[in-house]
Amino acid sequence: MHKPLAIFAAAFSAIALYLPTRTQSFTRVAVDGRSMRMLVTGTGGTTVVFENGLGSPLETWGRVQPKVSRFARTVTYDRAGTGLSDAGPRPRDARHIAAELHQALRAASVAPPYIVVGASFGGPCVRTFAGMYPSEVAGLVLVDPTTDRESIDAAARLPELQAMRDSLDQANARPLPDIPVLLIDALSPADVPFASATVRALRTSYRAGLEEETVENKRWIDAIAGGRLIVTRRSGHNVAQEQPDLVVAAIKDVVDEAAKRPRR
């Protein structure tokens, strides 16, 4: 999940993520008596639903959602226990997260078909969602997703990290429906200007890990009929903040391709 680099980048992008959504009107929906925060914008016959990375609020998509809302209805939300949503029951694995998202969409009267977009940990979550509700999902976009071989920190305190192994197993428990699937893999530039010696050392030490994840992403997408892989070297793990137009273009491609297919 490129955790060290992701944490570093997130610290600098928090204000930029807040600005695009600060004037929006948020929706509150109840899931099993607990409040969840959503942002629903745009119009269209297809709805694009965004799933955040580990511990991230819906503002993660602040540079992507407004542009996607020009050609589709869009939904971002805070998972239970993140952002401004109430905490949810454990385990916080992909299956429970997918079920809660499904309930939240119904509570907000947001009907399928859905194009589901998942970043980082959101990747296995939306794969699980597509497997659980195949007739409602028309396309899948994975933005530098957590790979199936992600190492698990047994001492992790975050509930979603504690359940990571189960989440990855659940993402593979059911086959994906016959839908367009696009995966963006962020290899990151080898060097960045103005970086400190600490950041440069961190990037160098993690380089082999990045390349291994690229290999794993290619292996996974090659097994998907018609699956497409986009490898970018212009951004790190936080693609939605560093290259939002790339993410928007990928979503538009999947929306357009899904529209050409007959409804199942």
Q: Tell me the β content.
A: 15-25%
Number of helices: 10
- The figure for the number of domains is 1
Q: What top-tier CATH class fits best?
A: Alpha Beta
- Strand line-up in the sheet with most strands: 1-2-4-3-5-6-7-8
As for the CATH topology, it is Rossmann fold
Which regions are unreliable across 5 or more consecutive residues at pLDDT < 50?
1-21
**What fraction, in percent, of the residue positions are helical?**
25-40%
Q: What is the strand tally?
A: 8
Mean pLDDT: 87
- Shape descriptor: globular
Largest sheet: 8 strands, mixed
Give the CATH superfamily. Answer: Alpha/Beta hydrolase fold, catalytic domain
Compute the gyration radius: what is it?
17 Å
Q: Calculate the terminal CA-CA distance, rounded to whole Å.
A: 34 Å
Structural class: alpha/beta
What is the succession of H and E elements? HEEEHEHEHEHHEHHEHH
At CATH level 2, the architecture is: 3-Layer(aba) Sandwich
Question: Any chance you could write out the topology, listing elements then pairs?
Answer:
Elements: H1 3-18, E1 27-31, E2 34-41, E3 47-51, H2 65-68, E4 73-77, H3 94-107, E5 114-119, H4 122-132, E6 137-143, H5 159-162, H6 164-171, E7 181-186, H7 197-205, H8 207-222, E8 228-232, H9 239-242, H10 244-260
Parallel strand pairs: 3-4, 3-5, 5-6, 6-7, 7-8
Antiparallel strand pairs: 1-2, 2-4
Helix pairs in contact: 3-4, 4-6
Summarize the structure.
This protein is α/β, with parallel strands linked by helices and 264 residues long. It has a single domain (3-260), classed as Alpha/Beta hydrolase fold, catalytic domain (Rossmann fold), CATH 3.40.50.
